[in-house]
Structure formats: structure tokens, C-alpha cells
Amino acid sequence: MKLDSNWFVEEVGGLAVSIKIRDKVHDEQSAYQHIEVYETEAFGYLLTLDGATMLTSRDNFIYHEMLSHPALFTHSDPKNVVIVGGGDCGTLREVLKHPEVKEVTLVELDERVTRVSEKFFPELCESNSDPRVQFHFGDGIQWMAEARAESVDVIALDTTDPVGHAARLFSPQFYRDCLNVLRVGGIVVAQSESPILNLELIKNIRLAMAEAGAQDIMTLSFPQCTYPSGWWSVTMARKGQGFDGFREADAMRKSFETRYYNAKVHAACLVLPEFMQEAFREERQGFV
Ligand code: SAM
Questions:
Q1: Closest CA to 94 of 73, 129, 67
Q2: Which atom of ligand 1 lies closest to the CA of 107?
Q3: Domain span holding position 44
Q4: CATH number for the domain including 51?
Q5: Ligand 1 pocket check for 216: Cβ under 6 Å
């Protein structure tokens, strides 16, 4: 079927994801990127940066919950959290649901992403005035290089794809800076793209984290229907400690609502399919 101009089409790796649109409701070239928002027929609003899908109103909850809750329920006591990127504030909202979190710093390069999200995705920004939050609009690479050592428990890398401004957010040097900023037992969790389209990239992220000195590394996957291939992943690295399960009882009795994450989903997504196990086998021998 040939698509007409009523479709937003994102092509990656010989595969296209198409979302039917009604109208373009925002179009702006910020100092850093081309920000567009579309009203779609079935997925609410769609935010794109430089032509790449960032989120839709309808399915962003899966990504934001899976970038936040597995890492936060794996850490024994996450008090200080840093989010790099994530200007739409969806990850911030999820992190703030954890009552033990005392302070969250969101380091986003482009303030315009946050301002546009406040207008079109107010539900993601509903916790932005929480007194535990500090916004820092600037480069996450520089922020991490200058941050105080051993001052943070969880770092969430909610970044664009590894090109342009975000490319160095996937480098061993950046992960080294993250590990330096983490306390022992701290976790850095990165969005790590599609298991089926970007397996080499996931391997490279894991190798870069290992090279940076992570004690243990783990990749989790989940569905995300509007991202290329409809399947996505996050990769967690831990400082000075291995991954030995998660706070399952706390996750079962969580004091807040989620729409995708629960303790059983968490346990299930720790199981890797054969081709991912195979891809990580060689590298994992170094950790066991
Ligand atoms: N969920 C999205 C995805 O995977 O497609 C990511 C969403 S979030 C909007 C990504 C954010 O990373 C963007 O707002 C972008 O401005 C920000 N970003 C890119 N490079 C950055 C950097 N070097 N420091 C801080 N933020 C950065």
C-alpha cells in the first residue's frame, strides 16, 4: 500500500513505521534541533526531533516506566537521581513516584523540548513543580564531567539516538564519568534502542559500559509500538556490585500506579531471548 501525505513515516533499517496524522500543530527549529508535533488519528500527539519519533501520547508510558522502575526497584535505596535528556518529562514523572527519591536533577540540552512538552503533553509534566526537582538546561556530557563524585544513586539516560548531540552520550568516556558520579551500588540505565534492528549498537553500549569499569551489565526489553520495529530496550550498568535480583516485595506493594510495569513484568523482562543471550555470551564471560 502506498501511503499518502496523511502519514508520518519513519524509516530505519529497511523498515518503516507509519502513524496516521490529522495535522501538524507545532513546527520549530530550536538552537539544537527541528521540533515538530503532530496530532495523530489514533495515538494522540506525536513529538518528533529531527524527523525521528520521540513519543506519542498513547504509548509513551511503556518506555518511561521501563526506563525508570526496573532501575529504581533494583537499587536498594535510590535517593539521588539524575536524568540526562528526557526533556519531555515523562521519565521525571515516573522517577518522582518513588517516595524514597529525595532529589532529581534533569539535565536536558534543549529547553524548548520541555516548553513544547508542557503545552502538548501536560500529563507528563504534571510533577515538574515537585520541590525535589531541579532543571538544568545544558549539555549532559559536560554536566556529568563536572558533577561531584559519588553523589548519585541512579542515572537515567533518556536520550535521542546516538547521532549528533547525543552521540557522545554512548561513549566509554561518558559512562566512565557516570560511574564516577555514582555511589557504590549505583546504577546507570540507558535507553538502548531496538534489539532486532540495533543489536550491534546494544553490544557496543555494553562493551563501552564494561570498558568504563561497570561491575555488571543487564539489558531488558519491552514492546514500544511506535518505535522502529515495535520493540525496544534499556541497558543497566552497576558500579562495584553485581545485579542480584530486585526489590520484588517492594515492587509488588508499590505505593503508586503504573500502566505497564509491575513486579511480574519486571521478573519476566530479565529473561533474554536466545539471539540476545548468544550476542552477549562472549562478553558476559568477563563478568561472571
Ligand atoms: N524517548 C526518546 C527516544 O528514545 O526516542 C528520547 C526522548 S528525549 C525527548 C531525548 C532528549 O535528549 C531530547 O530532548 C534531546 O534534546 C536530549 N539530548 C540530546 N543530546 C543531549 C545532551 N548531550 N545532553 C542533554 N540532553 C540531550
A1: 67
A2: 25
A3: 2-56
A4: 2.30.140.10
A5: no
For residues 52 and 114, membership in a common domain is answered with no
Which residue's alpha carbon is nearest to atom 13 within ligand 1?
A: 85
Name residues of the chain where pLDDT drops below 70: 1-3, 284-288
CB 286 within 8 A of CB 214: no
Taking only the tens place, the pLDDT of each residue in 239-260 is: 999 999 999 999 999 999 999 9
Domain count, the chain: 2
- Look at strands 15-29 and 7-12 and give their pairing: antiparallel
d(CA 18, CA 284): 36
Any ligand 1 atom below 6 A from CB of 140: yes
Same domain, 190 and 115: yes
- Provide the annotated active-site residues: 158
Do 78 and 122 belong together in one domain? yes
Q: Ligand 1 pocket test: pick from 109, 125, 137 the residue with the most ligand atoms within 8 Å of its Cβ.
A: 109
pTM for the full model?
0.96
Of 154, 152, 222, which is closest to residue 189 (Cα–Cα)? 154
| CA of residue 126 to ligand 1 center, whole Å | 19
